[in-house]
Amino acid sequence: MVTLKGQNIYLRALEPDDLEFVYSIENDESIWEVSNTQTPYSRFLIRQYLENAHQDIYEAKQLRLAICKNQDFSAIGLIDLFDFDPKNNRAGIGILIKDSKNRNSGIGSESLDLLIQYAFAKLNLHQLYANIDIENEVSLALFTNFGFQNIGTKKQWNLVDGQYKDEALFQLINPS
């Protein structure tokens, strides 16, 4: 049985109470490079997004979940399935742990494991993929540890601070 609850964390749907958390992430310029964001988001737009978060993945083509520590409702990160393609049974996957104090503690690994299990067992996906900056050693190690394979490099893919950076494409095929 697949559950969205692990030993130390659980994944839950976004709630209206997550407005300030999502607002702080979407407007943190230091992570815009990771999320391909170029402009700030207003609370109004994020409130609208949260009001439509009830749409299922087949309608919205994405699933964004809050990462929470057990016994705590407050989000510490977000994990997403995006570009959901039910015809070809694939989706992109991304993860962000907001505060550095919660990084390198196993939270990202546990969250990724839960979402991979959910994607393969409940959504019957055939494959997941991740786009990772080739200099992001932590993400490269995280996804590699779960069997994602580097299937190519997109040369000069993202313009960051006036310089083009390469981005690796990682893929995980459902083993069953």
From TrEMBL:
InterPro entries: Acyl_CoA_acyltransferase, GNAT_dom. Transmembrane segments: none annotated. Residues 9-166 form the N-acetyltransferase domain. SUPFAM superfamilies: Acyl-CoA N-acyltransferases (Nat). It is an enzyme of class 2 (transferase). Pfam families: Acetyltransf_3 (PF13302). Its EC number is 2.3.-.-. GO terms for molecular function: acyltransferase activity. Keywords: Acyltransferase, Transferase. This is GNAT family N-acetyltransferase.
